[in-house]
Amino acid sequence: MSASATRLRRLASVAVAVTACGGAVLLTPPVSSNDRASGHPTVESLRQIINDPSAVVPSRTLQESALIGTKSGPLDILVVGGGATGCGVALDAATRGLRVGLVEREDFSSGTSSRSTKLIHGGVRYLEKAVFGLDYGNLKLVFHALEERKQVIENAPHLCHALPCMTPCFDWFEVVYYWMGLKMYDLVAGRRLLHFSRYYSAQESVELFPTLASKGKGKSLRGTVVYYDGQMNDSRLNVGLACTAALAGAAVLNHAEVVSFLKDEGTQRIIGARIRDNLSGQEFDAYAKVVVNAAGPFCDSVRKMANKDALPMICPSSGVHIVLPDYYSPDGMGLIVPKTKDGRVVFMLPWLGRTIAGTTDSSTSITPLPEPNENEIQFILDAICDYLNVKVRRTDVLSAWSGIRPLAVDPNAKNTESISRDHVVSEEYPGLVTITGGKWTTYRSMAEDAVNAAIKSGKLSPSNECITSNLRLIGGDGWEPSLFTALAQQYVRMKKSDGGKVVPGVMDTAAAKHLSHAYGTLAERVATIAQNENLGKRLAHGYPYLEAEVAYCARNEYCESAIDFIARRSRLAFLDTDAASHALPRIIEILATEHNWDKSRQKEEMQKAKEFLETFKSSKNAHFHDGKHQ
């Protein structure tokens, strides 16, 4: 019998209960006799809990209760920041048997972690610097990142995949240069290699990438070198980390911010934090033996809560990306130009049925909602225009966003002018460990280093060593690329028409593939809601997102606002601001049912979401009417 059928049978026993209770049911995982004896779940039982397709994360109320503590019964670690690194720290510590809490001021992945290039990469440019600069430090960075790249893809196979990237060559020197360089990239990857790089002739290249210009730089295309890196759905991977940590025992709470630190009156060591729940407005104390500051670009503001004279360790850099229609790049092939005429990197990557183009790299100020400016958007359009045979238009831009890269300066280094592309872990104030810098690809090892530092600082006693290098995230264990076929064959989308009549609709391939890749083995839960609760309608024309996802995310992924859904649970805000705007009324209507919002709250949600979309340049992006471009 197929793996998919087995999962369906296991789900059947809980589907009715989950539906009847609105999803707010906490299933108690089986506990072995060894677990009872030690007081901590064993590593194997933790894996079973995380990989159980019937497991449900604790409710937000239970998570907040678990954070509230006393001096006599503190958490081992309190994490500040719910990005990739913060959630990685929570997962690492929880799977070592430590008592862990995490608070995030906004939503999981609301900052830099959702605004990335979506690549899981080793760093081709760092390898070039290592070779020509004889820089062993950069070589170590590439080795390390390639190791982590493979593990990220293996631990979340439904959210990550290998992506071929084409580098165009307009003279024979470039052909030899890039071919040799990328073969070296293959060599450095070793057993962590995704696929071998190779050369394609000019004719083969245009067949693979039809919009690629056959002339550029005043020269004819001589061919391309194609190599492989990884690609991900970044915010869904981040939410998956948070939910996996919650299943492992961590108390994770979004929309909750640290307003001050609690200090021991005698030693002045930090022993916890005063936290405000931004949804209810209530404040409470959370005590912990160690606080880990993983606030990304905002880590300096957290450090200044402990010591107002702390020197800055963040050198913020802005990266702007735009999203274009799918016809700009073929599905399954990216285009990367390592060095344009002004020395910048330009790329176009297929992502979730659209094309991401970028990027800029300029100094910026730190703000919660960074916005791209029109000059940056135009720079990207002008840069990709040189390599395409199609007209590049501002009116084709579907969405645009800016993300802040938290480049770090080690406060303990003698030369403070040296900006690190690697991550930095430091404890300048007793009880507060700061982790910053690095990149998405290396979040797991960054978290491991931070937890090791916290264990040393707080003299903690973990039950086992770090296990996250070989730990599938929620929805990843047992996932197969063919899972979507089971969804398409065994489910229908029950849709409620405007007149209130319920009509069945096919679970088409696009919707089934989307659910499979977004939720992994848990996609069947979403399909069950679409079928049993008449929430099978699409949210926006031309996109596979279903109404059922809003209900599922509210019940199972701590989706607490309309922005949480359009930006981090689905990716509508990043893919198409116009489609996101049209979907908002129905999204808010479903969330209102799930969270018991009154009319005032619904109106507030609509206003906040519209303002949020404007930071993606919604008023200047492409607009559609009945599916037609305006």
TrEMBL record:
The protein's name: Glycerol-3-phosphate dehydrogenase
Residue ranges occupied by any FAD dependent oxidoreductase domain in the UniProt entry: 76-443
GO BP terms: glycerol-3-phosphate metabolic process
Annotated Gene Ontology cellular component terms: mitochondrion
Annotated metabolic or biological route of this protein: Polyol metabolism; glycerol degradation via glycerol kinase pathway; glycerone phosphate from sn-glycerol 3-phosphate (anaerobic route): step 1/1
Catalytic activity: a quinone + sn-glycerol 3-phosphate = dihydroxyacetone phosphate + a quinol
Domain Alpha-glycerophosphate oxidase C-terminal, first and last residues per copy: 466-601
Principal cellular location given in the protein's record: mitochondrion
PROSITE patterns hit by this protein: FAD_G3PDH_1 (PS00977), FAD_G3PDH_2 (PS00978), PROKAR_LIPOPROTEIN (PS51257)
Cofactor: FAD
Subcellular location: Mitochondrion
EC number(s) per entry: 1.1.5.3
Molecular function terms, GO-annotated: glycerol-3-phosphate dehydrogenase (quinone) activity
Transmembrane segments: none
Family: Belongs to the FAD-dependent glycerol-3-phosphate dehydrogenase family.
Annotated keywords: FAD, Flavoprotein, Mitochondrion, Oxidoreductase, Transit peptide
